[in-house]
Amino acid sequence: MSWREQGIPLLPGLAIEEIRSLAKMGHISLSADIELLYSLCGGMPRDTVDGNWFELWPLERVLHDARNFPYSLLPFAEGFLSAQL
Length: 85
Prior knowledge:
The protein has 85 residues and is mainly alpha-helical. The protein has helices spanning 3-6, 16-25, 32-40, 59-65; strands at 54-56, 77-79.
């Protein structure tokens, strides 16, 4: 079931220029796939999860939390994968 079918609120996508500017400020290089993802969907509002307990972080949170990970890793979501079951 899609997020739209579940009624999950999604943040609006960002312009590619804004995505690249945010990444540059965070000293992070984003792949074309991640740029495309955030141009289509800006993530989920904080503390919003889907039916599988998956949370897609907004880009600002990604860049903030990336400081806590090794340089080669870029966190962009939390997935509890039906942990409630």
